[in-house]
Amino acid sequence: MSVCDISVHSTDRCRLDLIIPGEQHFYIRASSPQERQQWLVALGTAKASLTTNKTTEQAGEISPDIVRTKKSELRLYCDLLMQQVHSVKTAANESTPPDVQKLDDATALLSATCDTFINTLEDCMRIANASIKYESPHRNQSDPSFPVVTLKQPQKKHTNRMSKSLSLSEKVHTFPERLSASSRTRSASETSFSNSDLSETDQSSPRSGQPRSPSHTEDSKSNQSQPLTQNSNVQNSNANGNSLERTNRVQIDQNSANSDGHSSSMKRVQSEEEFKDAIDDKVPTFFSTMNPSFMDLQLGTDGGIPVEMFLGSCKSLVPFFDKLNSKAFAPVKMDFQGNIRKLHQKFTTNPSTYSTLQNMIIAEMNSNQQHLSSSATVALLWMKRSLEFIKEFLAEMYKGEQDLSTAASNSYSRSLKPFHGWVVRGVFAVAVKALPYRNVFLSMLGVEGDESEGSDFMQCLMSDMENYITALDVVIKILNDFYRLHSLESNDQI
Ligand SMILES: CCCCCCCCCCCCC/C=C/[C@@H](O)[C@H](CO[C@@H]1O[C@H](CO)[C@@H](O)[C@H](O)[C@H]1O)NC(=O)CCCCCCCCCCCCCCCCC
């Protein structure tokens, strides 16, 4: 089994071939495409378990057979995916309106095939990790446990979060560059933080000259003692292809270079075990310890967003409002929490029917309540806009905007401002003045009792922030598409 290739027939959706190169060729025909799919997943899993055992047993001695087998499996699932996509396109185009039953049949297997493809990819990552050395201690490798590919790295110190299937940002937007970004070796030259994130100058004094509340007079002394040594620009893109250009000035500590000439932050790792130890050095951040987080959100097969996970992920943001600890944010926090409460109250009236946000809104549309200011539809509209603001603000921080009022104004213009009258815009102006300096703000994204400054923290923070932005972006795009599809958007100003 471990040496045979599995191939799907190019036109016969019930046929699969088992080929032992140079020896035997089995032609197998299932009774239906679904049954063939089940055979493919079962055979693929059987091969994977054989390969995985071998890989585990012989870490560092990966035989060419295993690599060849994995490649053929990847090719198999790619072919299968292409076939299924073709079936969906055919079903969608062959009649107007499309035959829903044919579309359901054609799409029913997509999710299982994607999962199996990702599992195989995960095996390839495991094989690659077991056989290659890497240079940087902060490689963003996806979770090594089978079968989940998550964007969140296991927090051995705090939680070993395992989502049960592909987390949202892989299932809906698993782009090769996204996976490579999350599993790419993040070398020091790609570290996305600027020198002022690590600078020694004390910026805790009021930015706008106004007195700061005690929470803002954090010691911004970083523990970095070395001068800055290099600038570099790195072009990066998140899941939706938006390019996030970041200005990077990287702190490389020349004095702590180890024997092979690599600085301590460029330690060479000899084996997968050492890599796992390196994960232990992962510094927890606000994003990696949110529970739940949008990064754990799992879409339904119809793209439905589960209500409780969504509201839980929104609620996980609220403690950060408290960290900002200024009366200026009180109306913001109240409004944000008010919408969480409204949506939850609606959900509790019929949890089984309102399993997804979309179901809840469609039910309101059916009873013609969607335009009421007290409706779940309006509450979700404003929640979506608020999340858009947060996502845009974080993207500004991620790309290196040094001035938080600039970051806030840019993100406000792209999200909430079009729907605010002058009074509410005044509330925004007051809130912006209460913002701390960048390095203080970034330190607030640390976890109590753990590092919240220095290059290790910043590297982990930027990586977690990137993953969070990507996952949040997916949710916002789904909601925007849904509101546009059902003409639920409104340009009214409050
Ligand atoms: C970077 C910090 C900048 C802070 C400024 C944020 C933007 C504030 C904008 C001013 C909001 C004023 C308060 C609320 C106004 C409401 O009138 C308005 C409309 O409310 C809706 O009215 C409906 C009836 O018409 C009603 O049905 C509905 O329920 C109700 O919501 N609401 C809004 O405009 C939404 C404002 C919420 C904005 C939330 C932004 C959260 C900013 C948090 C700080 C930044 C954190 C980023 C980092 C996070 C890291 C994990």
From TrEMBL:
Its main location: Golgi. Residues 249-268 have a biased composition (Polar residues). It comes from the Eukaryota. Residues 135-275 are annotated as: Disordered. Residues 1-48 form the PH domain. One of its GO terms (molecular function) is ceramide 1-phosphate transfer activity. Pfam families: GLTP. Residues 180-194, 203-214, 231-243 have a biased composition (Low complexity). Keywords: Transport. InterPro entries: GLTP_sf, Glycolipid_transfer_prot_dom, PH-like_dom_sf, PH_domain. It is found in: Golgi apparatus, trans-Golgi network membrane. The keyword Transport applies. One of its GO terms (cellular component) is Golgi apparatus. This is Pleckstrin homology domain-containing family A member 8. It comes from Pinctada imbricata.
